[in-house]
Amino acid sequence: MPDARLEPVQRSPLYEQVAERVRAFIEASGLAPGDKLMSERGLAEQLGVSRTSVRQALTALRVQGLVEIKHGEGVFLMEAPRELIPRLTSGIVESEVDHPMIWEVREAVEVQAARLAARRRQDADLAAMEAALSAMEQSIDAGGDGIEGDRGFHAALAQAARNPLLHDLIGQMRDVFDRTSAASLTHAGRPQVSLASHRAILDAVARGDEPAAAEEMRRHIVRSAQLVVAYES
């Protein structure tokens, strides 16, 4: 009989789910900065959760700079969700691929994404990452650079992290990150090395080994950067 086992179902904390629902509500309702959200009690009743979970979610949104909590007055919107990240990343997106700032930011966010993916990945995430690497391998075998598979792998990894803000942040910077990957993959022999690095990341994520996943991603980013720009690891 094959040696098989069921993987535990990974669930994000309840407050993160509540925070994502509130973000979606803000976007759908057209609230503007300065507008007041419904009360903590009202949110709890509509979402069917405890006021404690709502309070934790609002605290997370406050830390993200999305809302302001005024005791005795209520919760007020500070930034529209889709305006917050572009404002933070506009300078990065306009930079060239050989600017050290881009690689430093990419290392920071994608290393953390790999760490969280190892903690929270689900079977569908692993399948998506494996499919992306298969596409990357096929492209390389055919003489291509594998950039589409590379893009798919990093997108699937960001999804597996199960952190809406991190996912949005990476999504907003995806174009410039793709340009850094393309610049790296033009170097002779790099596509094959990059594929091996991606497989090492996937293996660590599949094992649920957070430190290894983070370290493999860090090595991948640093090695890529060293081909494009003088970069201190």
Automatic annotation (TrEMBL):
Molecular function via GO:
DNA binding; DNA-binding transcription factor activity
Domain HTH gntR-type per the UniProt entry, residue ranges: 12-80
Q: Which SUPFAM superfamilies match?
A: GntR ligand-binding domain-like (SSF48008), Winged helix' DNA-binding domain (SSF46785)
Q: What is this protein called?
A: GntR family transcriptional repressor for pyruvate dehydrogenase complex
Q: Which UniProt keywords apply?
A: DNA-binding, Pyruvate, Transcription, Transcription regulation
**Transcription: is it a keyword of this entry?**
yes
Record carries keyword DNA-binding: yes
Name its species: Conexibacter arvalis
